[in-house]
């Protein structure tokens, strides 16, 4: 059947394609934890993303929770009551956090993603779909964010196409150490706090050496100067406190003592919890 000259295949125009997203490390850790605790028959885990929309339009993803579901080749069933109850519980603690999208584990978008995305599209406009590769193929965890654009033929909507959007996964050093351990399939032991601090200091020294080398290359004319990098180095140096060596040593020692005190208190708390658990178990047996 021939199509008329006025019938064209087109994407529905949407401002969602101009979005960008920012995900906090806690969300990634929570998703990986839910994947480890998933039922034996489940191939992947899906859940709701919570956060807010920043003034510049960036979707700030700060929290998440898993939603029980069952899926087959042609249909997906979500526990909608559980989803709404969890949302109410989260908003009692963080009333400013709203639904910003949903997540799924696995590499890229799967067949049932369009059906789940349609449900979240009824919850909020332009939801973000976050995919987390919990298999960590090739030692790297692929994390991507998508939005959906409608593909239509004339007035008839045919399908929805997922389009990738920029995703910021910025982490501080302590979070990066934890994420690197998470990507490792076999771990002999978790590093202690002092070992983690040692790794962080080694990275810091390596970065300082790179800065020294860049400055020397610019001064000697081997590399052209970059004004943006120069301003960044200047702002970093200006933000450092002016301390004498004795004052710096005192600051480090005080911080170390505070850190050791926190470790001591946390150890006491864990011991009390274990004792309380054993006492409760003994009371139930009696």
TrEMBL record:
Transmembrane segments: none annotated. PROSITE patterns: MPN. HAMAP family: eIF3f (MF_03005). Keywords: Cytoplasm, Initiation factor, Protein biosynthesis. One of its GO terms (molecular function) is metallopeptidase activity. SMART domains: JAB_MPN. InterPro entries: eIF3f, EIF3F/CSN6-like_C, JAMM/MPN+_dom, MPN. One of its GO terms (cellular component) is eukaryotic translation initiation factor 3 complex, eIF3m. Coiled coil: none annotated. The lineage of its organism: Eukaryota, Viridiplantae, Streptophyta, Embryophyta, Tracheophyta. Component of the eukaryotic translation initiation factor 3 (eIF-3) complex, which is involved in protein synthesis of a specialized repertoire of mRNAs and, together with other initiation factors, stimulates binding of mRNA and methionyl-tRNAi to the 40S ribosome. The eIF-3 complex specifically targets and initiates translation of a subset of mRNAs involved in cell proliferation. It is found in: Cytoplasm. One of its GO terms (biological process) is formation of cytoplasmic translation initiation complex. This is Eukaryotic translation initiation factor 3 subunit F. Its main location: cytoplasm.
């Amino acid at each position: 059947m021939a199509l008329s000259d006025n019938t064209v295949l087109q994407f529905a125009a949407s401002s969602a394609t101009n979005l960008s997203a920012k995900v906090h490390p806690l969300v990634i850790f929570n998703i990986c934890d839910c994947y480890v605790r998933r039922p034996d028959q489940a191939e992947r885990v899906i859940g709701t993303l919570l956060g807010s929309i920043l003034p510049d339009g960036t979707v700030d993803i700060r929290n998440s929770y898993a939603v029980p579901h069952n899926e087959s080749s042609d249909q997906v069933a979500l526990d909608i009551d559980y989803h709404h109850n969890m949302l109410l519980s989260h908003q009692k603690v963080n009333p400013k956090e709203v639904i910003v999208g949903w997540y799924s584990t696995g590499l890229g978008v799967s067949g049932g993603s369009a059906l789940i995305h349609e449900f979240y599209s009824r919850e909020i406009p332009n939801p973000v779909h976050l995919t987390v590769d919990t298999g960590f193929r090739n030692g790297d965890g692929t994390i991507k964010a998508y939005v959906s654009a409608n593909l239509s033929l004339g007035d008839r909507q045919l399908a929805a196409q997922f389009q990738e959007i920029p995703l910021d996964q910025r982490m501080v050093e302590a979070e990066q150490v934890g994420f690197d351990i998470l990507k490792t399939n076999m771990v002999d032991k978790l590093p202690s706090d002092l070992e983690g601090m040692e790794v962080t200091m080694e990275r810091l020294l390596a970065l300082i050496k790179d800065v020294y080398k860049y400055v020397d290359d610019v001064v000697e004319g081997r590399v052209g100067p970059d004004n943006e990098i120069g301003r960044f180095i200047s702002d970093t140096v200006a933000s450092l406190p002016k301390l004498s060596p004795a004052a710096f040593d005192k600051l480090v020692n005080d911080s170390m003592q505070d850190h050791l005190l926190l470790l001591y208190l946390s150890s006491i708390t864990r011991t009390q919890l274990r004792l309380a658990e054993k006492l409760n178990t003994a009371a139930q047996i009696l």
